[in-house]
């Protein structure tokens, strides 16, 4: 492989071809530190042309490529396997915002741009890029699109796919496809853009994207609502959708145990209510007319819900600091659960109407088969996506509980399938779920996916061992 490494060095500069293990370690270690791969080298190009040159070199030498953005993924999709035969193609140096068109409400950014940088660039132009994730300070737009990231604003604005108008992609052959069109209508054949979005780098490398922007709202209001049950949350969602209409931006379900873990493990966190409730909803609205109008609107809505007995209590954030404090309770759930100990995570979706029944029946089955296990259930109820995580019983060893991971996964995923849902709502499949998905997708669907993979990556060099 000496000749391969030398050609890569010639293409992008020797200092951007990393082979020393002290330098490659961070690129080989996945975010949750469950697994570390072994890369032949880490390649750090600075332009689309350099990416194309590297892919062409990899094709000649038969070296497989693992594209990587911020490496914040949760399904082992952005690290190499242990063979030492793949290179990691880090896109972090492709971090330029190429253009902002405020008249067309679009922003074109390279794949290595941090999500937070794109949000800020949009804000500087008095616009909104609405994709919002807990990892927005470290994840990149290329990774967001490769996994079709969701986040907290899907209810109003959609997934990453819905926020993308065009792509620039380096194909598995080393060709550059320039599809950076800022068009909202383009009916000229197959939608190539949508093939690459959500493909997790298995069909080609996204190097840039043209993204949708929106007018910046004049006010964002955050409310935390206390509820008796998921059924009450579903009723509230239906009422909010009718009464608040398009101003409803986020609707996050939080079970009591989530709040308990955050208060227990995250410094400076406290219960916003004076008493405990079984469930909560973090609700956000955004308004484009006036903050005063928005406040009156949401207060009237909450008063009506309280009077009708649909909710038990509510707290309306009076300023940005209070709103951030409420959102901090939601955003720190995963960290708090990790601090509590090992757990079994599920990123699932079911029809919104089925969420209460799914939670009730799956909770019951888990109690029957794994007595005392604690379900840490939270997530984007407004779009049907739950993070349905399972922690061991308080008195049970985490190491003993994790031995049941396959059985717990099977129980939860079978329930998801029974409710006509998906075992991966927003994190992707990666290497973690590539075998599991074959239990739930039809043979025809899997064969169609393999046909696309074979057509676009006939030598199977792009992110091998992921998805299929």
Automatic annotation (TrEMBL):
It comes from the Bacteria. The keyword Flavoprotein applies. The keyword Flavoprotein applies. Residues 35-216 form the FAD-binding PCMH-type domain. InterPro entries: FAD-bd_oxidored_4_C, FAD-bd_PCMH, FAD-bd_PCMH-like_sf, FAD-bd_PCMH_sub1, FAD-bd_PCMH_sub2, FAD-linked_Oxase-like_C, FAD-oxidored/transferase_4, Oxid_FAD_bind_N. Keywords: FAD, Flavoprotein. Belongs to the FAD-binding oxidoreductase/transferase type 4 family. PANTHER family: BLL6224 PROTEIN, D-2-HYDROXYGLUTARATE DEHYDROGENASE, MITOCHONDRIAL. This is FAD-binding oxidoreductase.
